[in-house]
Write a structure and sequence with these properties.
This protein has six helices and no strands. By secondary structure, the chain is mostly helical. It has one domain (2-163).
Length: 183
């Protein structure tokens, strides 16, 4: 079994090095986003941060985790599948709690795009990760492509959400500055 697991994963090494490195670097950039929020003096509470800031970091970290997990020298596919499945289930629970935070916060009114990108799309992607764990066991090659798609989706969700946050802060800060300059 060890040879088949190693062989199945061998072709994915470069992919996961690229995605994992990108996720790690983008996680660091989230610290810049939080610094921008503080410097722009945008009023927000921990509820808004939990709903819109922290999840983006978690998605980047999950992409990094998936990349690390798939780069491990697994001796058996069942342990890999168990790890992926647990990560997917944990991600679904986290995404649903994020939706709860977004509903309870009062500093920002999310539109349909916010609900999709910050809530339902991540929940769906994490559910696909949980399903991919079974696919890795039943149809290894297809399952690994599904895991790769999840990893990229989390990276792209994080990029979108970071961009959305930074542009919102920039526009809000600019509008606030104009209001303060108007006599």
């Amino acid at each position: 079994m060890g040879d088949s697991a190693t062989a199945a994963l061998a072709g994915w090494q470069n992919f996961y090095v690229i995605v994992g490195s990108s996720a790690g670097a983008l996680t660091g950039l989230q610290f810049v986003v939080i610094t921008l929020i503080a410097e722009a003096r945008v009023t927000s509470s921990m509820r808004e941060i939990r709903a819109f800031g922290s999840p983006t970091t978690v998605h980047f970290c999950m992409a990094l985790l998936i990349s690390a997990v798939l780069s491990c020298p697994w001796r058996s596919l069942p342990m890999l599948a168990l790890t992926l499945g647990a990560s997917g289930v944990g991600g679904v629970v986290y995404a649903l709690s994020t939706i709860g935070h977004a509903k309870r916060q009062t500093g920002y009114r999310p539109d349909w795009g916010d609900w999709m990108w910050f809530g339902w799309l991540p929940a769906l992607v994490y559910a696909v990760l949980a399903a991919a764990a079974f696919a890795v066991m039943e149809a290894t090659a297809s399952g690994l492509f599904l895991v790769a798609a999840v990893d990229l989706a989390l990276l792209f969700i994080g990029i979108h959400n970071s961009w959305d946050t930074v542009t919102y802060i920039a526009i809000r800060h600019t509008e606030k500055g104009r209001q303060e300059d108007t006599p």
